[in-house]
Amino acid sequence: MAEAYIVAAVRTAGGRRNGRLMGWHPVDLAGAVLSEVAARSGIDPAAIDDVIMGCVGQAGEQALHVGRNAVLASTLPDSVPAVSIDRQCGSSQQAIQFAAQAVMSGTQDVVIAAGVEHMSRVPMGTSVAGARPFSERVLARYGVKGFSQFTGAEMIARKYGQDRAMVDGYALESHRRAAAAVERGDFADEILVLDVDTPDGAVRHAVDEGIRFDASLEGLGALKTLAEGGVVTAGNASQICDGASAVMVVSEAALKAHGLTPLARIVNLTVSAGDPVIMLEEPLFATDKALKRAGMSIGDIDLYEVNEAFAPVPLAWLHHVGGDPARLNVNGGAIALGHPLGASGTKLMTTLVHALRKRGLRYGLQTMCEGGGIANVTIVEAL
């Protein structure tokens, strides 16, 4: 079977809600990572066959085909096509998988998978304001009045015996790992530094704004739960975030034709779906499926990136697969770094590939819980 390779991967540092990236239009933010990933690869941008852009809130400034508009805002020629996709939080991870499938099928040779979400300028839920996305037939089928990721997170916590201390402890570790990664300079190679205008003058945006360098269990414990009797709080859930990210995927023929240096090889592409009510549990079963298809065990995987939409999710995943906590989200996750929805898939892959190479490790696995009970799993081999 034909192979697919990652030759460049980049992300912006996350911006807090109404924070440093507030002045950046989402199209310009996405355009910046497209320009950067092309420049880092060293390829002639005219050779890019397609751009696949993940974005959840395709409304307002992210409407009217944000992927194509990002190409027009970038240094790529306007001859490069694009498509915008939505698989909820897994949108840009699915973009990677679509890009890899295009390359492995032989229909394309150079594809950029990317994602963008400006949650300050296009708030979560903008695209469904005043609408009813679930029909009465769907609600009746599952015996619910609606579907909620918050409800799903609480259901997972109860199912896997997680208490408040456990999820808060996990959240604290996310901040500690992210802070340590910043101090070690581990994010330096993956972040595109942006110029930002502030009331105090121009600054360089190079560090994820959401990291709480002084996080404590006392502070996390003082936060109110979102549901009475529950465990989920704003402190142990992912942060609202502005950001963009991009990964270039190429064929073996493109490696040779353009003299490109691969960072990683894509080993497995898996997507699965299950219960839309508990919803966020699907990464557990998708990982089982991916490992079986790859002929691997969790012990073969050196690092795991499991999106921290809510602390109960990676905790349940770790319990289910029997993984090593020391290999999970080694540089922190979305609780500390932020979760820019449609950009998180390529963001996590960027961090995973760089972390594997920096540590001299081989295999990495990325998974993402997604609205509707869907999950993507991607396994890569660092080169």
Automatic annotation (TrEMBL):
<dbReference type="GO" id="GO:0003985">
    <property type="term" value="F:acetyl-CoA C-acetyltransferase activity"/>
</dbReference>
<dbReference type="InterPro" id="IPR020616">
    <property type="entry name" value="Thiolase_N"/>
</dbReference>
<feature type="active site" description="Proton acceptor">
    <location>
        <position position="369"/>
    </location>
</feature>
<feature type="domain" description="Thiolase C-terminal">
    <location>
        <begin position="260"/>
        <end position="381"/>
    </location>
</feature>
<feature type="active site" description="Acyl-thioester intermediate">
    <location>
        <position position="89"/>
    </location>
</feature>
<protein>
    <submittedName>
        <fullName>Acetyl-CoA acetyltransferase</fullName>
        <ecNumber>2.3.1.9</ecNumber>
    </submittedName>
</protein>
<keyword id="KW-0808">Transferase</keyword>
<dbReference type="Pfam" id="PF02803">
    <property type="entry name" value="Thiolase_C"/>
</dbReference>
<feature type="domain" description="Thiolase N-terminal">
    <location>
        <begin position="5"/>
        <end position="252"/>
    </location>
</feature>
<dbReference type="InterPro" id="IPR020617">
    <property type="entry name" value="Thiolase_C"/>
</dbReference>
<dbReference type="InterPro" id="IPR002155">
    <property type="entry name" value="Thiolase"/>
</dbReference>
<dbReference type="Pfam" id="PF00108">
    <property type="entry name" value="Thiolase_N"/>
</dbReference>
<dbReference type="InterPro" id="IPR016039">
    <property type="entry name" value="Thiolase-like"/>
</dbReference>
<feature type="active site" description="Proton acceptor">
    <location>
        <position position="339"/>
    </location>
</feature>
<comment type="similarity">
    <text>Belongs to the thiolase-like superfamily. Thiolase family.</text>
</comment>
<dbReference type="InterPro" id="IPR020613">
    <property type="entry name" value="Thiolase_CS"/>
</dbReference>
<keyword id="KW-0012">Acyltransferase</keyword>
